[in-house]
């Protein structure tokens, strides 16, 4: 099987508006995300983004690289390391780790992470995607 191909990073700006929209879409109105006065009284010192909102940057990055293959077979195993805050610029990146044959295609494995503009790791882990034989990237 061909080596795992490079994946383009995804860069997202976190704003309080995007956090509020995520809260509305999911129904998760935990005050640590949406109530600035409350959030200032916590050890975080202000509002923070929902972890899944930040994690979505990794999934978007993999979906852009692998299209339907990612949507059908993508797997993530991650740890949340730190919060993203309004005003942060979050970069999702993937580093190829392995490409192995399996079934009627192969499995590509990547080390994935999200970092903020200060280089702090917010999320780290692995992503795997199944691709058909003869494809190093399932782009459509």
- The rounded Rg comes to 17 Å
What's the shape?
A: elongated
State the separation between the terminal residues, measured CA to CA: 20 Å
Strand fraction band? 25-35%
Specify the biggest β-sheet: 5 strands, antiparallel
Mean pLDDT, nearest integer? 93
Task: Using the coordinates shown, work out and report the CATH topology of the domain at 10-14 and 51-132.
Answer: Thiol Ester Dehydrase, Chain A
Number of strands: 5
Order of helices and strands: EHHHHEEEE
Concise description?
Helix content is 31%, strand content 34%. The protein is built from four helices and five strands, in the order βααααββββ.
Task: Characterize the structure shown.
- It is built from four helices and five strands; from the N terminus they run βααααββββ.
- It has a five-stranded antiparallel sheet with strand order 1-3-4-5-2, with helices on one face.
- It has a domain at 10-14 and 51-132: Thiol Ester Dehydrase, Chain A, CATH 3.10.129.
- The longest helix has 23 residues, at 51-73.
- The chain starts with 9 loop residues before the first strand and ends in an 8-residue tail after the last strand.
- Helix content is 31%, strand content 34%.
- It has helices at residues 16-26, 31-34, 36-40, 51-73; strands at residues 10-13, 75-80, 89-102, 105-115, 121-132.
- It is α+β, with helices and mostly antiparallel strands and 140 residues long.
